Amino acid sequence: MTDKENEIVKFIGKVHGVIVKKHSLHSACYLLAFFIYKYCKEVLNAETKIIIGWVNDGTWSGVSSHAWVEYNGKKIDVSLSGTADEKLYPTGDAIVLDRTIESGNVSYSYYYAVPSTAANAYAELKKSANQQTLEFMSSKEREHKKMKEIASNDAYINQFFENAPASRRFEAIKTLIERE
User: Fold this and answer.
1) Is 66 exposed, middle or buried (0-12, 13-18, 19+ CB in 10 A)?
2) How many domains does the chain have?
3) Which residues make beta-bridge pairs with 52?
């Protein structure tokens, strides 16, 4: 491993231990991806890439919108290692540079685009879904597009943090990480 990769591993270990585990930050993949990206860029001088893609936990044929970060094509994702409701959303592996640092209840499959099996499952679901379910699905599609747009531009990421509640702003999370 390079010195830079070792720095990233150490940093992500703190994000996982302090933010996800100790402070129980769950259901926040976008926030964590944006934070990891910005911290790597500004503090570690490491260029990473935010991926707004899709994951599947193996219990159904659909996918859920999800964000992770890649460094030199290697996945970084600790957000699935803690979920708000483990019955609905089983915990996944904590992954740093394609290595599992903590095993979850399931190993999620990651996709850059919706696979055809999931697209077919959504099409079938939409045929029989009630209005509330259709509205929920539509809101999740809009959220995915919005997060993809934010991830495309550093100014949008900065604005995302400026508009976040105080405890979820970049500097607040950075302080938590650096204090521990």
Assistant:
1) buried
2) 1
3) 67
Residue 53 and residue 112 in contact, taking contact as beta carbons nearer than 8 Å: yes
**Residue 77: burial class (beta carbons within 10 Å; 0-12, 13-18, 19+):** buried
Residue 155: what are its φ and ψ, rounded to 5°?
Answer: -65, -40
Convert the pLDDT of each residue in 80-119 to its tens digit: 999 888 888 899 999 999 999 999 999 999 999 999 999 9
φ and ψ at 75, to 5 degrees?
A: -75, 140
Q: What is the span of the domain harbouring residue 17? A: 3-179
Query: Order of strands, edge to edge, in the sheet holding 64-71?
Result: 99-102, 94-96, 74-77, 64-71, 49-56, 109-111
pTM: 0.95
